[in-house]
Design goal:
The complex is a heterotrimer of chains A (440), B (324) and C (292). Chain A is 72% helix and 0% strand. Chain B is of the alpha+beta class and 324 residues long. In chain B, 26% of the residues lie in helices and 16% in strands. In chain B, the strands form 5 sheets. A 5-stranded mixed sheet of chain B has the order 12-11-10-3-13. Chain C is built from 2 helices and 18 strands. In chain C, strands 1, 2, 3, 6, 12, 13, 16 and 17 form an 8-stranded mixed sheet that branches. Chain C has a 4-stranded antiparallel sheet with strand order 5-4-7-8, with no helix packed on it. In chain C, strands 9, 10, 11 and 14 form a 4-stranded antiparallel sheet that branches. The longest helix of chain C has 32 residues. Classes of the chains: A mainly alpha (440), B alpha+beta (324), C alpha+beta (292). Chains B and C meet through helix 1, strand 1, strand 10 and strand 12 of B and helix 1, strand 5, strand 6 and strand 15 of C.
Chain lengths: 440, 324, 292
């Protein structure tokens, strides 16, 4: 039986060990290489990529879509599970929120990398046209970012107060920072009331905003005429895809954090089992929309559609398409339908497979459509008929993924990855075993 | 003493001759220089020049007071660049029965817009509706749609639709997101992925020229999008777009839909009559873009399709200048 | 002693010969490099307006027809083996120039009422001299718009201005002014009858700004009379209706004309959400400030 003190000791952030430092330096190195490649891109222009007039969007955009999809995990875990009264979510919500914040911040950065004239960024605000789906994107991403940060922060306030006390002697400087962030939290009735009300508002608000984010992301494609994009199915297709990507990312990160911080007592097999069931549900939903998107057009086989489907089913993109669909979607469903498949280690592997599959699935969504426009591709160099990212694109993209992981790493380092106060409340643990009113 | 006198005389003669020679050479050199200079000043100054004022009046002006400017910066614009020429709606008609892929249109467009990339703005496609139909050559320009998808999706108003029907690009506003290129179903837009380098490869001289949406490619800017502009810079001077005048087969007709008249430089016809007689149609009508370019189907062809094959380059549409 | 002097003189002599010969060569070369200039001249008379001679100077340089700009052309009236200078012009950047004849009476015609004009280019360092002669008689076109049985017609009479007699069997072009090239009305050839007159019906439904059409009756490039043109403005056109959506609120309009639905809804959503966000941030401040 745990008491409050052990609880805090288990969940309080710990100093960086050797492995952590190596990991962080490794990420920073990748990021620096990516920045160098980006500076080269700024100087020479986007001709350093392999995008050309036909494959005009490449992995910068599919990477962006991936980040946007992954950021949905916050809405799902914190809000949707909350509204459906799934109490088991408590140890998972903090990590889910951290992943959300990291993903949406990286989404904002990644889309700016794709802009060929970032020096004119302000035009998006000064001259914004409301009719353009990009303007809707410019609105929704910062909005979701702020909401996610608030959703991360509000429940953290009591935890910061706890950590301030915990580190008072161990690390006074750190304690001071926690103190500042705790906003003079004393656990008073008034404060608790404000906090609870705010969290409820955010939790309710983040669901439509999260759905809106995925929808607008889908509309970037489905507001064009292009075959493969011009689909009425796209918005719910993207929402369910975000469910899959987000939960997959959550499982992967939770497994690593749990193992490394020895949190097996708090995140148990039970949680993995529940997450596994949630992922299966998400994957089945996504599979349903995939069938609508890829199987049904084959029924009428309109010329444009059949060219698109041929490319995916038997053509140049067939290996990729079948990999992400079978290995990235169907296999996880099968594995997770079994109880043994929902144990932590198989879940971790499935989670990774799902995340990698999600990333490549978005590549399959963006590129093949661009390479079969309405008018034939003629009068341009032969290389323009294909697209595979260049070294610059890979370096920059990998750097963005590294940056996302770096944000997660830093947040996990300094924040309690499991909500301390909430867990204490649920376990009925009081801060002082003795009933005293004074602070310790 | 005599010796000395002789010596000095010799010296005098010597020096004199030397001086004379130098003077002669110098004189010839100077005269040549003078004639060259003279030639320059002669070509500028004398007599009077006939000029027309903006009110249509003809006046005589001293030639020496007139400065010829190669590219006039902002003409006396009577209209807003974003609004367009009043009372006009520009349309183009392309007669597919006459096109034999001479590619003179493409060359003229490339040349006059200093295109340095690998993708021309004017493309002539080798088309075939299905295996049983006969192949034909189809030149395409920007369609300057009345319901332009590209304009709808631009987040910063960098591309805009004017009253006179033209869809133009403000290269100084464009942020390079390429959404317009994704939206265009006619694949007509090109992107400047790197430095266009027009000054270097094509010796383009931009002094005295103000960049304007009315003259695409002057200059092209890195990281922005370009496309056919229907040459408003020509139309302002009452001249037809470059592709229309360059075509040796009279394929392109250009004009004002409100005036119901189009011309290919040689013949002028009523647009409505032309479209009725030859069953004009538009590309991808079912998409609802309302393009401003009409096509006349390739019936009763004047030329064989195969004649155009010798000029067909599947992987090239912009001739690169020979490296000197 | 004498020898070195002799050598010097021989040396000088050789040098001067060398110099002179190179000079000769240069002169020769200059002459050989000069290009021929071809002058084109057309006499154009616009009724009740100006008459002018349209001049173009072209030259074949390196097998390409190039316009010759900035050269001075002298215009003479040739009369009785004599030439009187009546003016000069300088070609513009396109090699073109217009010499305006303000009053035809200042030019003397010959016994056949023909005006003979000589256009002369003196030549310069790059071009040889060149001459061009044109001759023309003075002709007038009188044109009218008439309406018979609900059809509009243009009648025009071509008259020799010097003799006041009609000019028969010449083809006149009837056209309506349009943006780049005029649009032809009627047949390709409209020959004047024995009275020098033609009558051409105007097709219905020609559009014009505010319904106004400007017709041109043109004697185009005739051997005897040059080009004579008269203009008739008539409000018989179909008024042009502006069909553009420029002033409407559409999806493709600039931002100041966003569709109302979008404007209202989007701003409501934005304000609503950010209003709540501001409220939440204020809550953070409240927590910070609240004391037990």
């Amino acid at each position: 039986m745990k008491n409050f003190k052990t609880l805090v000791k288990d969940l309080a952030p710990k100093k960086f060990g050797k492995l952590d430092i190596i990991w962080t330096c490794f990420l920073i190195l990748i990021i620096f290489i990516g920045i160098a490649a980006y500076i080269d891109q700024l100087i020479k222009g986007q001709e350093v990529t392999n995008m050309r007039d036909y494959a005009l969007w490449g992995i910068y955009i599919s990477n962006f879509v991936f980040f946007v999809a992954t950021s949905f995990v916050g809405s799902v875990t914190v809000a949707i599970l909350r509204l459906t009264n799934n109490e088991w979510r408590t140890p998972l919500v903090r990590i889910a929120e951290i992943i959300s914040v990291a993903a949406i911040v990286m989404a904002g950065i990644t889309i700016m990398i794709d802009m060929a004239r970032p020096d004119r960024l302000l035009n998006l605000f000064i001259h914004a046209r409301l009719q353009s789906p990009i303007t809707w994107d410019v609105f929704i991403i910062p909005t979701y970012m702020v909401i996610s940060l608030l959703l991360l922060y509000f429940p953290l306030i009591p935890d910061f107060a706890i950590l301030k006390k915990y580190f008072k002697k161990k690390d006074p400087k750190l304690s001071k920072w926690y103190g500042k962030l705790s906003l003079n939290w004393t656990g008073s009735v008034a404060q608790k009331a404000i906090q609870t009300k705010s969290i409820r508002i955010i939790a309710i608000m983040i669901i439509p905003i999260g759905l809106l984010l995925q929808t607008i992301d889908a509309w970037l494609f489905s507001t064009t005429y292009r075959i493969g994009w011009d689909s009425t199915n796209f918005a719910p297709y993207f929402i369910s895809g975000a469910l899959v990507a987000g939960i997959g990312a959550l499982i992967s990160v939770i497994y690593v954090v749990r193992k490394y911080k020895k949190l097996e007592d708090y995140i148990t097999d039970f949680h993995f089992d529940k997450l596994g069931k949630l992922l299966v549900l998400a994957c089945l939903t996504y599979l349903y929309f995939n069938v609508n998107e890829y199987l049904i057009p084959a029924f009428t086989s309109k010329k444009g559609e059949s060219i698109h489907l041929d490319t995916l089913f038997t053509g140049a993109y067939a290996p990729l398409f079948w990999s992400v669909t079978i290995v990235g979607l169907i296999l996880p469903i099968i594995v997770l339908l079994f109880k043994k498949g929902r144990k932590p280690l198989p879940m971790f592997i499935v989670g990774l497979v799902v995340v990698v599959g999600s990333w490549w699935k978005r590549f399959v969504i963006v590129t093949p459509t661009l390479l079969h426009p309405f008018l034939p591709i003629q009068g341009v160099p032969e290389s323009w008929h294909h697209y595979f990212p260049s070294l610059h694109e890979w370096l920059i993209t990998v750097a963005t993924l590294a940056m996302a992981l770096l944000i997660i790493t830093l947040l996990v380092r300094y924040l309690p990855v499991i909500p301390i106060q909430r867990t204490a409340d649920e376990l009925g643990l009081m801060e002082n075993d003795k009933i005293k009113n004074t602070e310790s | 003493m005599g010796e000395n006198k002789k010596n000095s005389r010799r010296k005098f003669l010597d020096n004199g001759l030397k001086l004379g020679l130098i003077t002669a050479i110098g004189g010839i050199g100077l005269s040549k220089l003078a004639s060259k200079l003279n030639a320059k000043t002669n070509s500028g100054a004398t007599g009077k020049m006939e000029l027309m004022t903006t009110d249509g009046e003809l006046i005589q002006v001293d030639a020496s007071e007139v400065m010829e400017v190669e590219h006039a910066s902002n003409h006396d614009k009577k209209y807003n660049v974003r609004e367009g020429m009043p009372n006009r709606k520009f349309v183009m008609v392309i007669d597919l029965a006459k096109c034999k892929n001479a590619l003179k249109c493409q060359n003229a467009c490339n040349k006059h817009h200093y295109i340095t990339g690998d993708n021309a703005w004017m493309k002539v496609y080798k088309m075939q509706e299905n295996n049983d139909s006969a192949p034909y050559w189809m030149p395409t320009t920007c369609m300057h749609c009345d319901k332009p998808a590209c304009v709808t999706v631009c987040p910063v108003d960098a591309t805009f639709k004017r009253k006179d029907g033209l869809v133009l690009i403000d290269n100084e506003r464009c942020i390079g997101c390429r959404f317009c290129m994704a939206a265009c179903p006619y694949s007509t837009r090109v992107f400047n992925w790197g430095e266009p380098g027009q000054e270097i490869t094509l010796n383009m001289d931009m002094t005295d020229h103000t960049p304007s949406p009315e003259h695409g490619g002057m200059p092209s800017l890195k990281g922005t999008v370009d496309k056919c502009d229907f040459c408003p810079h020509q139309v302002q001077n009452n001249e037809l777009p470059h592709c229309v005048t360059a075509c040796p087969n009279g394929v392109f007709y250009f004009g004002d839909k409100y005036e119901d008249t189009v011309t290919n430089g040689d013949e002028s016809v009523r647009l409505s009559q032309l479209l009725e007689d030859k069953a004009g149609y538009r590309l991808m009508e079912s998409l609802g873009t309302e393009p401003s370019v009409y096509y006349l189907p390739p019936t009763d062809r004047l030329v064989d399709f195969e004649d155009g094959l010798e000029f067909y380059k599947e992987f090239e549409s912009v001739e690169k200048p020979e490296k000197s | 002693m004498k020898n070195p002097q002799k050598f010097r003189y021989i040396f000088l002599a050789l040098i001067s010969v060398f110099l002179l010969s190179t000079n000769f060569q240069n002169l020769h070369a200059q002459n050989a490099k000069k290009n021929k200039v071809r002058l084109k001249a057309n006499y154009i008379k616009i009724m009740d307006s100006l008459s002018y001679i349209e001049l173009t100077a072209v030259s074949k340089i390196k097998k390409q027809n190039t316009k010759v700009s900035n050269i001075e052309l002298n215009i003479y009236n040739e009369f009785d083996d004599d030439k009187i200078k009546i003016g000069n012009v300088i070609t513009n950047m396109k090699g073109e120039s217009k010499f305006i004849i303000k009053n035809l009476n200042t030019i003397k015609p010959d016994s056949t009422s023909t005006y003979n004009i000589l256009i002369s280019f003196k030549g310069n360092d790059s071009f040889k001299k060149s001459n061009k002669r044109i001759s023309f008689k003075d002709a007038n076109i009188e044109a009218n718009l008439i309406k018979k049985d609900s059809t509009n017609y243009i009648t025009a009479t071509l008259i020799n201005a010097s003799t006041n007699s009609p000019i028969t069997d010449e083809s006149l072009d009837i056209q309506v002014q349009r943006l780049f090239r005029p649009l032809r009305i009627g047949e390709e050839f409209n020959n004047t009858n024995e009275n020098g007159t033609i009558i051409v019906p105007i097709e219905k439904g020609i559009p014009g700004v505010n319904g106004i059409l400007t017709f041109e009756v043109v004697l185009n490039d005739s051997d005897d009379y040059g080009t004579v043109k008269t203009l008739i403005e008539a409000p018989i056109g179909v008024p042009i209706v502006d069909e553009s959506t420029f002033n409407q609120r559409t999806l493709w309009s600039p931002r100041n004309k966003t569709p109302l639905f979008l404007l209202i809804f989007a701003n409501l959503i934005i304000l609503g959400i950010w209003g709540i966000i501001v409220y939440l941030i204020l809550n953070l401040l409240k927590i910070s400030k609240s004391k037990t």
